[in-house]
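3-deoxy-D-manno-octulosonic acid transferase (Buttiauxella warmboldiae), 424 aa
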Amino acid sequence: MESLYTALFYLIQPFVWLRLLLRSRKAPAYRKRWAERYGYCRGKVEPGGILLHSVSVGETLAAIPLVRALRHRYPTIPITVTTMTPTGSERAESAFGQNVHHVYLPYDLPCAMKRFFNTVRPKLVIVMETELWPNMINELYQRKIPLVIANARLSARSAKGYKKLGRFTQRLLSKITLIAAQNEEDGSRFIELGLKRSQLTVTGSLKFDISVTPELAARAITLRRQWAPHRKVWIATSTHDGEESIILDAHRQLLATFPDLLLILVPRHPERFKDARDMARKGGFSYIMRSSGEKPSSSTQVVIGDTMGELMMLYGIADLAFVGGSLVERGGHNPLEPSAHAIPVLMGPHTFNFKDICARLQNADGLITVTDAGSLVNEITTLLTDEDYRLYYGRHAVEVLHQNQGALQRLLQLLQPYLPQRSH
């Protein structure tokens, strides 16, 4: 099975290059740094440290508190963060700057992985969520380098796919040092696939371990005063194709009742910024791009968030938030970031990526589900009209966040045996 997997991976490489070129038409970053995708990273990393892999933006955001805590605890150990996408790469660079090294994780080809690990020579490898690359796992196992899957989740759909591979999956899991699952449900799915109990710990979700720093809160307050001191503001974030049109339709209807209302629209992927701008223009909205540095005038109706690394601050400007990827079948994005600002959170029905988190928020009256532009308009109208109702949902959202924190400390304790003793 391993040989077949590897042979197929080599055979599809020309199609991989074609896909990168096609994606680069909208996002030019896909045309760059191809050598890194084959393990050539000499001079870009410092060997002998911790390697942390977070495939894209969501995983990188969840990894931020972990990387900061590791740097604080082990200041002399170099950290390399790898991603697979340019957006994940930009997020890593904006979050960590010069404090960590960053390269793409190579494709899961034996030659690329060997080359990569010959250069990086990590003491410990941490993979965020669930990225199981067979050749990478084999390479680490042969080199006796501990591999920890942190913040691990495994949906019923993914588990079904892995189950079909039978012994192959079981062999793969046996080579992983430790899996730190987000909850019991995810943990039991790994056990069903053949993971030993001794290899599993349930730590909770790292996504709860976020906070609004005083600096961030101050920047948000300043921006709110500059942008909309006497206006209500709502934000729609991480939107996908098919959602921006629903958001703008809802905003048009809301403007009839709240003529002063300002919308901040933040598409999930940078290649969609232009599409969002075109939709706002065609819809006849008065809009500005965040990257222009302009301040919204009293007549500005839409601000398109086309910058990287500002999402947490932009949530701090808003009175309520809609989190995208949920009105279309993408599984939704992280509702805990707006929750940290104690504002009501609205999402569509498709939240399978955050099933456990959304269930906790919903049960505690910290999340409102909408299905289309009509229900979005109705819910936002109620929230904007009734301040007590708005504060009630915001307070409950932030309470859920605080009640479920602690995964970071539990994970740091689990990692301790694989890292050198801290000097006091």
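The longest strand covers residues 233-239. The mean pLDDT is 95. ok done for today
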